[in-house]
Every structure is written in structure tokens, then in C-alpha cells.
Design brief:
The complex is a heterodimer of chains A (381) and B (346). Chain A is 66% helix and 7% strand. Chain A has helices spanning 3-33, 64-96, 102-116, 120-134, 165-193, 199-217, 247-274, 277-285, 290-320, 332-344, 347-376, and strands at residues 149-151, 154-157, 159-163, 221-225, 228-231, 237-240, 243-245. Chain A contains eleven helices and seven strands. In chain A, strands 1-2-7 form a three-stranded antiparallel β-sheet. Among the domains of chain A are: 43-132 and 247-334 and 364-376, MetI-like (MetI-like fold, Orthogonal Bundle), CATH 1.10.3720; 166-217. Chain A has 381 residues and is mostly helical. With 346 residues, chain B is an alpha/beta fold. Chain B has 13 helices and 14 strands. In chain B, the strands form five sheets. Chain B has a five-stranded mixed β-sheet, with helices on both faces. Chain B has a three-stranded parallel β-sheet with strand order 4-1-5. Chain B is globular, with a radius of gyration of 23 Å. The chains are: A mainly alpha (381), B alpha/beta (346). The interface between A and B is large, with 44 and 49 residues.
């Protein structure tokens, strides 16, 4: 057709293939020379190492693949916690920076400038070792509300012990499905008859009543297990029972959210300031209260500016969570690209899997945020 | 007829063997790593990020330690100057990749010799320069006097990607004790976390415990429990596939140990040239052609002994006099009740 247009593209493609071919050939030759074999078979082998904190059951008798899942889930956990807190802090600080109150405004500005200008790794070290030094030993801690224990060995919180947990979950699912139906029904009713249905109060009611029924008639039963102090040696103590959040998780989540929140705060500030002043004045002139102005006029427009750069920050936070290895939080990099790599020596295989995993995580977040961005974009009719 | 055929085949076989032999020795002089090292003018050596007694840099950047001395011995043998070494500090996680990807030519970093490491990941262990075993450090006021006092729920700090991690699991499993492993990439962070009270015990090789103890805020408040839960033969490692280089590193280490056995030291090495003992004369290059077999000159071993010293001198200088482990324990010569025993250099 048009050779002049196609030829450069073909050439580029050829060069890329050649480069990849060269490196993979080289790797093959080098590995053969050193007697290293290549393969993913090791994933089903027994891992024979333990992990301190895991969302699924794991010990050394499980496979390397399960160790990979443990690391992946821990990475997702700290990323989700980080994203939630970074968003909350970021929005609050971002709006505080626009406040008319001088003190609030300056405090927010100082916070942003301070935390975004210090390398993240240093902050992680600071929160971890400062926290370790500052937290009390298990035997010296003051319980919060009698049941929460914050100690150097972790944050011990009460756990629920369930009977017939499945019935309880079914009741929750049933409640959510009926709420969805009611919302659709309510929207139709409003469109057809112009009558509003109190969807919110009905939803809350359903969410309370159905699980309550499961307790009364479904045989569901929950008791609370409170952590109890246990003596390990003459000077060493720990807590038993309940749920233990390791200090590594807490300090990592803290460092990640405080750091990323500064960038999100700037996104929020930019978004709000990006809405033209005329919009606010027009909204005020038709009698909306300041809160309504913010909620109905400013925010919907600001969000369109805020979402894309904030997506970047979410991606950054997820990728930065790999710094966990420095402070012993068993994330994907520490468990899989660290211990598993060292014990098997399968560098190429494990690093490739780890890279693909981070790529998949990041792309999933991107896809979700793009979907949300489209959803809130102005729909021109 | 058949008789002659048999003789003919054996003759052909002999020629073939001779031929491979000569090509082998020709390859010896063509060792890629040796050639590159001589071209560069320094030995590329991977060491730890700071383990007193084994490989540790002072404020001026001078590396000392028994692991460091192995690399210095190779430099003395190959380049004639024990100071022509470029040290690369590596974490436990990075060390093998650095070696297999040609970043370094010798890994001398308190590395445990195991079957899977030797056979599976492109490495070759050339010997043992320190016989060690894994132990536990605890606070004195804990009242622990033995690993049998450990209770369910104990938390143990250690290094990531080490045999320690695996031994620890084997040990606690066999005792039926549930434990919390807290693993860091760098030794300094392990020490800091243990010091702060994050862990009830710190576990690693006993030599490592002794060396890291000085970094604690009050070393006297901590003790190392008497039990040893594993065998940790530590030694230098090279890449698989260059058997000549492998031999050079192996025999540089062996010469140091054998020199101690025969009482050859850095100060008396020259005078030993006139010794009556042929084994001693071979060690200092006054008899035999040992250097040629390795593709080196005949003074290679003399230079090692003169510039680095024998194993005993190295141990005394780095480990005993620094107060890390004054008692040599198993790292004493076999003639003196230890297990240091190397094949003869002849």
C-alpha cells in the first residue's frame, strides 16, 4: 500500500525483536555455562521458611506459590490501607490549604512542604525506628478502652469469634442485593411519578434488620476474644489471642499515607482552584449555602481535575510499598523477591513474576480510576 | 590380530587423554577470569556490608577481616600485591546475583556452603575459612539460660535470605514452639530492631552474634546461649565454569592454612626457603613447580604468606585480638584439636 509509511515501522519492530532476542540468547548462554536451569517448577516446591504476618494460613510446609500469594496479599493490604488514609488526609489537608483561617492554612502548607521533601525511605525508617523506641514494652502498655494494646511488638486488638459466620454473610449479601433493587425502583419511580423515596433510611434499616434476624433466628453467634498478656521470660512479654497488627505494617502504612497525602493534597487544591470563580458566585447568587456550593457546584467540576493526577499517586503508593523490605514487613518484594529468591536462586523467574505482578496491580488501579473518571465526567447530552 | 587392535585402541585412548590434558593446561593459562583480573590490575571481591572480624571497613575505607584476607591472598598470588583488591559490599540478598552476573569474581562474605547453593545456582564453593554454627542471643535479664526455656509466641529477629531463616524454622518446629520471624535485609536493621525490644531473641551465626554484639547500646546486657543449632561452614565462592580460577582461590586459602600448620609466618617466610622440610620448601616456592600448575609463577604462595600471613595470623589479627571470639574452637588446626584440615599443597 504505502511502503514509505510501513517500512520505518517494520524496521523499528525488527530492531526491538532483535534486541530482545539478543538479550534472551545471551541470558540462555550465560545460564547454560554456569549450569543454571530455567523453569517455573520450583513454585510447587515446599518453601520451608516462615512468614511473620500473613492474611492466609502459611508456614514452611506450603509451596513457594503460596508464599507468593502471602506476599501479594500483604502488598495489597498495605496499599489499600495507604490509599484510603492518604486520600482522607490528602482531601482534608488540600481543603485546609484553601481555608480562610490563617493558622489552618499555614499548618497545612508546612505539613505538605515538610513531608513531600524528605525521601520516603528515610520517613519509613523514621516511623519504624522512632515508633519502636517510643512504644511501650508489652508489660508497660496502657490499654485503650481496656481491650486495645499498642506495644513495641505490635497493635493487639480484640477479634470476633464467630459461630455460623456463613449465615451472617448471606444475610449481608441479601441486604445489599435488596438495596440495589430498591435504588433502581426508586429511580424509576422518581422519573415516572416525580416522587422521591427515602432510599438512605430504607438501606440502613435493611443493613441492620437482616443481619439482626440472622442473629435471632439463624443461629449466628459472635463472641469477642480480648488479647491477654503472656509471659515469655523473666523480662519478656507478649499478648495472646485477638488480632495482631505488626509494627512494621503500622509504620509502613503511616509513612506511605503521610507521604502520598501531600501530593494528593496538592491535587485537591489544584482541582478546587481550577473551578472558575464565576461558578461559585453564580451558585451563591441563586441562594445555595456555602456547603451546597461546595458539594453541588465546585466538587463535581473539581473532581475532573483531581482524579487523573491522583491516580498517579495511587500507583506511586502501590509501587513505593515495595520499600517494605527495609523494615521487615513481609510484602511481595521481601517474601518472594527476597527470601524465596535467595532460597531457590531463581533470579530471572522470580524477578519476572514480581515485575508482572506489579504491572498487573498498577494497571488494575489505572483501569478502575479511568472508569471512575469517565463516570464523573460531564455527560454532554 | 585382535591383540594388536586392543593395543592400538589403548594407544589412541592414551593419545586422546594426553591431548585433552595439554588442551586443559593450555586452557589453564587462558582462564577468562584470571586474564581479566590481570588486565584490570585488581581482584574484584564481594564482601559483607560490615561484619567486624570478617569483612569490615574502617573510617578510611580500609577493609579488614578473615574473609577480606582470602581476597587479599588471591591478589597477592595473581597480581603480586595484596592491596590490589576492589571490595564490593553486598547484602545477603544481592551476593549470589552479583557473582553470577560477573560483578565480582570472588564472593568472600561469610557464606554458608550448602548442597543447593553449590549445585543449583551456578556457584562453586572452594573451601571453608570459618566453621560456624547458628546460635541465639537474648537479654541477660530474660533469665533464659538455654534454648529449652523458649516459649510459644517468642519473636526472633534475623537476616533475610540466609540459611538462618531455614534453620530457625527447623529448630522451632522440632521443639514444637510457635514463633514470629522478623526478617530484615540489612544486619544493621536487625541489630537496631532487636536492641529496641522488637524481638526477644536475635539469631544468626555465632560469629555474627559475637561481632554484632559490640553494636548494641549496652553489649553487656546480652548473652549468647550455649546451644548451636546448625552447621554453618563459611567459605569463599566463585562462579561455576572457570575451574582454573576456582583452583587459584581454593589453593590460596589452603596455602594460608597449611602455612600455619608448618609454622611458616609472614615474618619467617623468607628464611624458610632453606628449611630441611620439603613440604615447607614447597610452600615458599623453593621446591617444586606448584605455581605453574595454576598458571602462576612459583613465588605465588610465598607472596601470600609474606603479605597476608598464615591463617593463624589472620585469625589473631582480625577475630581474636579484636575480642570477637578469642577462643578458636573448631577453627583450630587439626593438629591442635580443631577441624581445620586441608589437602597437602604438593
Amino acid at each position: 500500500m504505502n511502503i514509505k509509511k510501513i517500512l520505518p515501522q517494520l524496521l523499528t519492530l525488527l530492531v526491538v525483536i532483535l534486541i530482545f532476542g539478543f538479550f534472551s540468547y545471551n541470558a540462555q548462554v550465560n545460564m547454560e555455562n554456569r549450569g543454571i536451569t530455567f523453569g517455573y517448577g520450583f513454585l510447587s516446591q515446599e518453601s520451608s521458611f516462615d512468614v511473620q504476618f500473613s492474611l492466609i494460613e502459611f508456614d514452611g510446609s506450603h509451596s513457594y506459590f503460596r508464599a507468593y500469594l502471602v506476599g501479594l496479599l500483604n502488598t495489597i493490604l498495605v496499599s489499600v490501607i495507604g490509599i484510603i488514609f492518604a486520600t482522607i488526609i490528602g482531601v482534608v489537608v488540600g481543603i485546609a490549604r484553601l481555608s480562610n483561617n490563617y493558622l489552618i492554612k499555614r499548618t497545612a502548607a508546612v505539613y505538605v512542604e515538610f513531608f513531600r521533601n524528605i525521601p520516603l525511605l528515610l520517613q519509613i525508617f523514621f516511623w519504624y525506628f522512632a515508633a519502636l523506641r517510643a512504644l511501650p514494652l508489652p508489660q508497660d502498655t496502657e490499654p485503650m478502652f481496656g481491650v486495645f494494646f499498642l506495644t513495641i511488638k505490635g497493635f493487639f486488638v480484640p477479634a470476633f469469634v464467630w459461630n455460623n459466620l456463613d449465615v451472617f454473610i448471606y444475610s449481608l449479601i441479601a441486604a445489599i442485593i435488596s438495596i440495589l433493587f430498591i435504588r433502581i425502583y426508586a429511580r424509576k419511580k422518581q422519573e415516572n411519578e416525580g416522587i422521591q423515596t427515602p432510599v438512605l433510611s430504607i438501606s440502613i434499616g435493611l443493613l441492620i434488620i437482616l443481619p439482626l434476624l440472622s442473629f435471632l433466628f439463624g443461629g449466628v453467634d459472635a463472641s469477642v476474644e480480648i488479647p491477654v498478656i503472656k509471659q515469655l521470660s523473666q523480662s519478656g512479654f507478649t499478648y495472646e489471642g485477638g488480632i495482631k497488627l505488626p509494627p512494621e505494617l503500622i509504620s509502613l502504612a503511616l509513612a506511605l499515607s503521610l507521604y502520598t497525602a501531600t501530593f494528593i493534597a496538592e491535587c485537591v487544591r489544584a482541582g478546587v482552584q481550577g473551578v472558575s470563580k464565576g461558578q461559585k458566585e453564580a451558585a451563591a447568587s441563586i441562594g445555595l449555602t456555602p456547603n451546597q456550593v461546595l458539594k453541588l457546584v465546585v466538587m463535581p467540576q473539581a473532581l475532573r481535575i483531581i482524579i487523573p493526577p491522583t491516580t498517579n499517586q495511587y500507583l506511586n503508593l502501590t509501587k513505593n510499598s515495595s520499600l517494605a523490605a527495609a523494615i521487615a514487613y513481609p510484602d511481595l518484594v521481601l517474601v518472594f523477591a527476597g527470601t524465596a529468591l535467595m532460597q531457590t536462586g531463581r533470579a530471572i523467574e522470580i524477578v519476572s513474576i514480581t515485575m508482572l505482578t506489579y504491572l498487573t496491580l498498577s494497571i488494575s488501579i489505572s483501569i478502575f480510576m479511568n472508569w471512575y473518571n469517565k463516570k464523573i465526567a460531564i455527560k454532554e447530552k | 590380530m585382535f591383540k594388536y587392535l586392543k593395543q592400538l585402541t589403548s594407544l589412541v585412548a592414551m593419545v586422546a587423554v594426553l591431548f585433552t590434558f595439554t588442551t586443559e593446561t593450555m586452557a589453564a593459562k587462558k582462564s577468562k577470569t584470571l586474564k581479566n583480573t590481570q588486565k584490570k590490575g585488581f581482584v574484584r571481591c564481594g564482601v559483607s556490608q560490615g561484619l567486624p572480624g570478617f569483612s569490615n571497613a574502617d573510617a578510611a575505607g580500609n577493609w579488614t577481616g578473615v574473609d577480606v584476607d582470602v581476597c587479599r591472598a588471591v591478589a597477592a598470588a595473581v597480581l603480586g600485591d595484596a592491596n590490589k583488591v576492589k571490595f564490593t559490599p553486598l547484602s545477603a540478598k544481592e551476593r549470589f546475583t552479583a557473582l553470577t552476573s560477573n560483578e565480582i569474581d570472588i564472593l568472600s562474605r561469610n557464606t554458608t556452603w550448602t548442597l543447593s547453593r553449590d549445585a543449583d545456582i551456578g556457584l562453586t564453593f572452594v573451601g571453608v575459612n570459618f566453621y560456624d554454627g547458628q546460635g541465639f542471643m537474648v537479654r541477660k535479664n530474660s533469665g533464659y539460660s538455654s534454648v529449652n526455656d523458649f516459649k510459644n509466641g517468642i519473636s526472633a529477629c534475623t537476616n533475610l535470605g540466609t540459611t538462618t531463616e531455614l534453620n530457625m524454622r527447623d529448630f522451632f518446629n522440632s521443639k514444637g514452639i510457635s514463633y514470629e520471624p522478623v526478617t530484615f535485609e540489612k544486619a544493621d536493621e536487625v541489630v537496631a530492631a532487636y536492641d529496641a525490644g522488637r524481638c526477644d531473641t536475635y539469631t544468626t551465626d555465632k560469629s555474627g552474634l559475637a561481632a554484632q554484639r559490640i553494636k548494641l547500646s549496652s553489649p553487656d546486657d546480652h548473652i549468647v546461649l550455649p546451644e548451636t543449632i546448625s552447621k554453618e561452614p563459611l567459605g569463599p565462592v566463585v562462579r561455576q565454569g572457570d575451574s582454573v580460577w576456582e583452583d587459584i582461590v581454593r589453593w590460596s586459602l589452603n596455602v594460608m592454612i597449611e602455612a600455619e600448620e608448618y609454622g611458616v609466618t609472614s615474618s619467617n617466610a623468607d628464611s624458610m626457603k632453606t628449611s630441611d622440610n620439603p613440604a615447607v620448601k614447597r610452600l615458599v616456592g623453593a621446591e617444586g613447580e606448584l605455581g605453574a600448575a595454576l598458571g602462576l609463577d612459583n613465588d605465588w604462595s610465598l607472596r601470600i604468606i609474606k603479605q597476608v600471613g598464615n591463617y593463624g595470623e589472620s585469625y589473631k589479627r582480625n577475630i581474636a585480638d579484636t575480642g570477637i571470639l578469642p577462643d578458636r574452637g573448631p577453627n583450630e588446626l587439626w593438629t591442635k584439636g580443631g577441624i581445620l584440615y586441608v589437602p597437602p599443597a604438593r
